[in-house]
């Protein structure tokens, strides 16, 4: 089995924090999720996680106007310049301090970054190769407190910056003679957003106390006058001085809140023409996010209570006022057409895209706001269901509760298992040390199994026999026989508390993970141990911020808490309280590969060594909580508290893997982690992987053999070279009439390879019927031989079944839709009119033949006849 698994997606979590951004066409949405970014294709209903990650959680996303570049900035100011076309990191840069916002200019030539109370103007990276992609142009001083937001004029001549000191500053991107800086006040709280009007210097400013100020400028954009050119000698000397510095600081512009009369003479002036309030009299609701669409003059504002307003500016006419959540709205974005509005709620991890004109949701998703703890694949591998500590179960299909199982006395269930037939449900108790057995159909309690002397930690049914394995903290694994009145068949004694058990898919082997970090393998029929793996060192546990021992010492108390066999039973997947997931070869009992599920240092237990910079004479700086009663509000405020709860504390969740599962097809595996649901798939980018290659197997010789109509030889040669495109070319060149002959003459060794290729080809090819003929002939002619190797071929067959089942569902829905439409058209044609009375044929004319009669029918009659034929075809 090849282990070329690569990270392919992050599911179950759709938004964490940071700003949402629509792409240039307005059809896709970028959403920061932890230290990764997910791209939601809203037109095609698809989601993709970019194959890159920052060191800490992402807080700012800046998207270039052409949609080709993005700047991702994490909590400490480390930035990644990302190509959204190649989905690769182009450049890395460190701003040294946390960044509050980032924004590209509309012409894409520059971008502004705000940190502390400063604004930095950088030259945007171009299409040419550059030694340093981020070149500082100017540094702007003015605000006294931290900056909060940025907005540009349409012609990229000026930009505005909002601040926590309740002021808004307008700066010139170039040194204009009549506008270098301008300070605006008028607010009594933190500035949340500022927006320029379309093709104007007129400005809107919005504060946290839900107040909107409208500012009018006495100068148009065309009225900005360039600054006279500087002395060439001085400019050359300044450039030479910058070259001597390690990093050019650029030009510095110092703004004054109260400039003198002489400094404001012949300069741009602003006047406040209106001030509006969102809250009604007596209400108090913090405004937390805002977005403005300049072409439609649409203002969208979000509040801490989960309510959002839509207003038309500049008249401040209310269009909508709706509630989408009971949590704080953290980010709002409007697409280029102004039709779709995206909302992000970090408290519950909600992401919504709303079409305001039709008042309907384009996207409405919410992940688990607490950690995921379990997952399961559907038998065909098309769906994944997850369960979390928030008590929710997510799946793409809607289900209803049809059965509730209860115990005769209150018990705290800690494990659950369902047998392969789906008839028996078992649950283990953590407090009474008992196992409860129910019937799925009737919901009746069948039996209560007692015998363990500690909490039940795991249950697993044998997929091939009527045997239940139960693991307990009493250092035993018991096997219960379903057919013999649930009597104990065997009791396996372990050296440590047992945490998890798992049967091999063929039911002949049992894997057990214990508290001492060992994974042991048992022949449960004979109660004999067949092997063991010492996995404690492979966990490689990190050091927590408050740990007083090293990571190496802390790893001694860690163990695997979840196990899963691969579909062929040759490998086992193991995860636990660590950032690593391990794949072991069962037969050789060795580590095959170790996957690092996260590099996000915003999570706890990620550091391998103690960071001395965070240590003081009084202890770790992690003990100091800086988040109580902050701007982000609180999750559960105390009664009567409106502005913030001083008892609220931020904490760093610990990295861990709670559940791992192999897909039945063997093509991918999934893990529920602190980050969310992570998917790993076989690497599809592997191009050259030859099989039994010799010197005569070349693309030219393969095509020459194909032209001679030696199809079987050509297929074998193509599989030896093992280039997917070439294999597809050869397979599709075989006439459908020759498929039967080719399949019957194909060597057994290549039947499995051809089946695997067909399964992958079904996902992308449009030749559905052609490949179905291939699959049918192969299975009919080689079915008996394939049965003898069913265990080995199980992943391939399930992969093929998954691909065919998906096409069957899509085609059947299309056919049903066509049938309904045709029936509707038939009903309409019948209502439009009955057959008209036949007109008399003039004497002497010959009667028309049947085809001519059809062509000479009334239009609606000809359509009706055609519709009847189509309806019969689809049925």
Q: What share of the residues lie within helices?
A: 10-25%
Structural class: alpha+beta
Q: What spatial form do the alpha-carbon principal axes imply? A: globular
Report the mean per-residue pLDDT as an integer.
82
Beta content: 25-35%
**Strand order, sheet with most strands:** 10-11-12-13-21
Termini Cα gap:
43 Å
Number of strands: 54
Radius of gyration based on Cα positions: 34 Å
For the sheet with most strands, the description reads: 5 strands, mixed
> What would you call the quaternary organization?
single chain
As residue ranges, the low-confidence spans are 242-247, 632-638, 640-648, 684-689, 834-859
Number of H- or I-type helical stretches = 13
Structure description:
With 875 residues, the protein is of the alpha+beta class. It has 13 helices and 54 strands. Strand 25 and strand 26 form a beta hairpin. Helix 5 packs antiparallel against helix 6 (711-721), helix 6 packs antiparallel against helix 7 (724-733) and helix 11 (790-832) runs antiparallel to helix 13 (859-874). The two termini are 43 Å apart.
Short descriptors:
repeat; Small-subunit processome Utp12 domain-containing protein; PWP2; about 900 residues; alpha+beta; WD repeat; 13 helices; globular; five-stranded mixed beta sheet; about 35% strand; four-stranded antiparallel beta sheet
Provide a quick synopsis of the model.
WD repeats lie at residues 365-393, 449-482. The chain is an alpha+beta fold.
């Amino acid at each position: 089995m090849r282990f070329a698994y690569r990270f392919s997606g992050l599911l179950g979590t759709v938004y964490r924090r940071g700003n949402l951004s629509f792409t240039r066409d307005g059809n896709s949405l970028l959403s920061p999720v932890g230290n990764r970014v997910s791209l939601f294709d809203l037109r095609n209903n698809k989601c993709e996680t970019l194959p890159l990650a920052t060191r800490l959680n992402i807080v700012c996303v800046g998207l270039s106007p052409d949609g080709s570049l993005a700047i991702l900035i994490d909590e400490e100011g480390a930035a990644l310049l990302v190509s959204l076309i190649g989905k690769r990191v182009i450049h890395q840069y460190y701003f040294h301090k946390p960044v509050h916002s980032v924004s590209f200019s509309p012409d894409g030539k520059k971008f502004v970054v705000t940190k502390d109370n400063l604004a930095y103007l950088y030259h945007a990276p171009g299409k040419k190769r550059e030694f340093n992609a981020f070149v500082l142009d100017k540094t702007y001083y003015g605000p006294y407190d931290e900056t909060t937001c940025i907005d540009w004029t349409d012609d990229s001549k000026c930009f505005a910056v909002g601040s926590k000191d309740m002021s808004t500053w307008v700066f010139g991107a170039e040194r204009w003679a009549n506008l270098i800086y301008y300070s605006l006040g008028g607010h009594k709280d933190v500035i949340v957003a500022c927006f320029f009007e379309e093709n104007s210097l007129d400005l809107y400013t919005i504060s946290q106390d839900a107040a909107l100020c409208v500012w009018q400028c006495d100068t148009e954009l065309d009225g900005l006058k360039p600054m006279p050119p500087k002395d060439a000698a001085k400019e050359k000397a300044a450039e030479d001085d910058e070259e001597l510095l390690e990093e050019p600081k650029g030009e510095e512009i110092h703004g004054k809140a109260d400039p003198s009369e002489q400094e404001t003479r012949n300069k741009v002036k602003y006047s406040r023409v209106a001030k509006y309030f969102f809250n009604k009299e007596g209400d108090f609701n913090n405004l937390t996010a805002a977005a403005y669409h300049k072409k439609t003059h649409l203002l969208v504002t979000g509040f801490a209570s989960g309510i959002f307003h839509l207003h038309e500016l500049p008249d401040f006419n209310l269009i909508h006022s709706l509630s989408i959540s009971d949590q704080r709205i953290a980010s709002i974005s409007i697409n280029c057409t102004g039709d779709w509005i995206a909302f992000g709620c970090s408290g519950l991890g909600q992401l919504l895209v709303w079409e305001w004109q039709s008042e309907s949701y384009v996207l409405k998703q919410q992940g688990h706001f607490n950690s995921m703890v379990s997952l399961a694949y559907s038998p065909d591998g098309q769906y994944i269901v997850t369960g979390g500590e928030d008590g929710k179960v997510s799946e793409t299909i809607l289900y209803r509760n049809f059965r509730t199982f209860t115990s005769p006395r209150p018990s705290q269930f800690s494990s659950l298992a369902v047998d392969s037939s789906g008839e028996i449900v078992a649950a283990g108790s953590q407090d009474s040390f008992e196992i409860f057995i129910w019937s799925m159909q009737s919901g009746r309690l069948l039996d209560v199994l007692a015998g363990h002397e500690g909490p039940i930690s795991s249950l697993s049914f044998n997929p091939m026999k009527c045997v239940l394995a139960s693991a307990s903290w009493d250092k035993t694994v018991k096997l219960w026989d379903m057919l013999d009145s649930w009597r104990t068949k065997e009791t396996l004694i372990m050296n440590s508390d047992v945490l998890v058990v798992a049967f091999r898919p063929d039911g002949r082997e049992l894997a057990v993970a214990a508290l001492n970090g060992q994974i042991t393998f048992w022949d449960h029929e004979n109660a004999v141990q067949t092997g063991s793996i010492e996995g404690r060192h492979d966990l490689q546990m990190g050091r927590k911020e408050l740990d007083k021992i090293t990571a190496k010492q802390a790893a001694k108390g860690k163990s695997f808490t979840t196990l899963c066999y691969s579909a062929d039973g040759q490998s086992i997947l193991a995860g636990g309280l660590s950032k690593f997931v391990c794949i072991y070869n069962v037969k050789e009992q060795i580590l095959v590969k170790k996957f690092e599920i996260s590099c996000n240092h915003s999570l706890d237990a990620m550091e391998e060594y103690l960071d001395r910079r965070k240590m003081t004479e009084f202890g770790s700086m992690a003990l100091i909580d800086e988040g109580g009663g902050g701007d982000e509000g609180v999750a559960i405020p105390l009664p009567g508290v409106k502005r913030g709860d001083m008892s609220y504390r931020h904490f760093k969740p610990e990295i861990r893997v709670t559940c791992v599962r192999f897909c039945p097809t063997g093509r991918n595996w999934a893990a529920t982690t602190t980050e969310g649901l992570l998917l790993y798939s076989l690497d599809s980018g592997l191009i050259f992987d030859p099989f039994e290659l010799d010197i005569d197997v070349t693309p030219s010789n393969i095509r020459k053999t194909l032209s001679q109509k030696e199809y079987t030889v050509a297929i074998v040669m193509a599989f030896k070279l093992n280039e997917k495109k070439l294999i597809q070319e050869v397979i599709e060149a075989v006439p459908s009439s020759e498929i039967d002959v080719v399949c019957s003459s194909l060597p057994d060794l290549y039947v499995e390879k051809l089946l695997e290729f067909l399964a992958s080809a079904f996902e992308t090819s449009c030749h559905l019927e052609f490949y179905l003929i291939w699959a049918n002939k192969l299975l009919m002619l080689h079915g008996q031989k394939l049965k003898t190797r069913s265990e080995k071929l199980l992943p391939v067959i399930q992969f093929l079944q998954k691909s065919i089942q998906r096409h069957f569902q899509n085609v059947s829905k299309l056919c049903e839709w066509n049938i309904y439409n045709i029936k509707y058209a038939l009903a309409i044609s019948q209502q439009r009119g009955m057959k008209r009375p036949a007109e008399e044929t003039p004497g002497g004319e010959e009667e028309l033949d049947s085809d001519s009669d059809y062509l000479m029918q009334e239009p609606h009659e000809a359509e009706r006849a055609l519709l009847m034929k189509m309806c019969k075809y689809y049925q």
